[in-house]
Amino acid sequence: MKIDILDTWAVIVEDDTLRQNSTKTYEVEFNFAEIWDGYSKTAIFEAGPASVIVALTEDRCTIPAECLKHGSVKLKVGVYGVKGEERKGTVWCVGSMIIPDATMNMGSSSGNPSPDDVYSEIMAAIGDLSAAGFEGKTLAEVFKEIKNSVCETATDEEVKDALNTAFGVKTDPSEHPEELPSNTATDKEVSDLLDDVFG
User: Fold this and answer.
1) What is the pLDDT of residues 51-80, one digit of tens each?
2) Does a structural domain hold residue 20?
3) Of 52, 48, 8, which is closest to residue 26 (Cα–Cα)?
4) Same domain (yes/no): 145, 78
5) Which strand (E) or helix (H) includes residue 6?
6) Are residues 56 and 129 in the same domain?
7) Residue 21 half-sphere exposure, CB side, CA atoms within 13 Å?
8) How distant is the alpha carbon of residue 52 from its chain centre?
9) pLDDT digits (tens, 9 = 90+) for 136-147
10) Within 10 A of 198 (CB to CB), how many other CB atoms are there?
11) Overall number of domains in the chain
12) Which residues contact 50 (CB under 8 A, 6 or more apart)?
């Protein structure tokens, strides 16, 4: 999976087919705009009732196995950054539906993992919280801070800023057509892009 991070926007540019309880490791590669330079970055993944944070190493991480425990739900991804006292978060981007495990309802005899096993798995996925700018905070405090910063919807001004960043236009194209770069998107292309991102 590849995700572009444009200021407060997170856009999936390459998606994976995710399978419930898969033994396959799903890697996520984040491509950050320059505005994120110098930030320690943490990704937050949500799928159904599962929410897991993961400190990014070289702008990459693995989708936590805990987020693949539930089928027929969509994976949501957000990013949170810390640079000194500054904090920055993205809106959620929504990935593909997790394909349900066909064996889940067929009387599988394998037992549930112990709480210690689950905790160890989650902590291994999260990584070093102090490296992500959260030194001295409990996991609950870090999770609450990140979850509260990743917002559900963007404001009109955030949409306008994201489009200006993505397409490099700071003026209304109808007012100054002579100032448009040759790679400017049409209104229909912008509308199609927004439909793709937000459905």
Assistant:
1) 999 999 899 999 999 999 998 999 999 999
2) yes
3) 52
4) yes
5) strand 2-6
6) yes
7) 12
8) 11
9) 676 667 766 776
10) 12
11) 2
12) 64, 66, 67, 69, 70
